[in-house]
Known about the structure:
By secondary structure, this protein is an alpha/beta fold. The protein has helices spanning 14-28, 58-69, 87-96, 101-104, 123-135, 162-177; strands at 2-6, 33-37, 73-79, 109-115, 139-140, 145-147, 154-155, 158-159.
Amino acid sequence: MITVISGTNRPASRTLLFATHFQRQLEALGASTRLLDLAELNLSHFIPEMYNAAEMAPELRELQQHYVLEAEKLAIFVPEYNGSYPGVLKLFLDGISVNAYSQNVKGKVIALVGIATGRAGNLRGMDHLADTIAHMGGWVLPNKLPISGVEHLLTDGRLNDAATEKALLRHAEQLIAAHH
């Protein structure tokens, strides 16, 4: 099973549109998927006690089990926030790290897709996130996919660019085929 994560808590984000499109591509290729939209996180589960496994909010533990621990692979869609990745994504990774740390991402193949209105497609943010994932023992696909100028690639909430569609499909195929 592959979990696709929309890595922002911004409601109705462009990141979610791309993540949902990618999830449909994975399923069309025969993969079993789940979609985690970080906009649906209840931030009250991230309290000072979040760093104590015994005090971890049951709802956060359930999200971790369903979307991370049960996943064989992950695809994380990473919008550019201030030259990096969103704090809510870091908060989520930190929050689940107190429980079953070595089972979260260790040994799992992880695809990264950068989403940005600028030219670089959040390359820097994907590098920052890749460093975090590597520290946690995950294996990031070497071909991180930067998607730039996203405001020009969507019409009425749907992808309208054939080259981007093809790049996402190749990324989905690489993720499915990857073994580590």
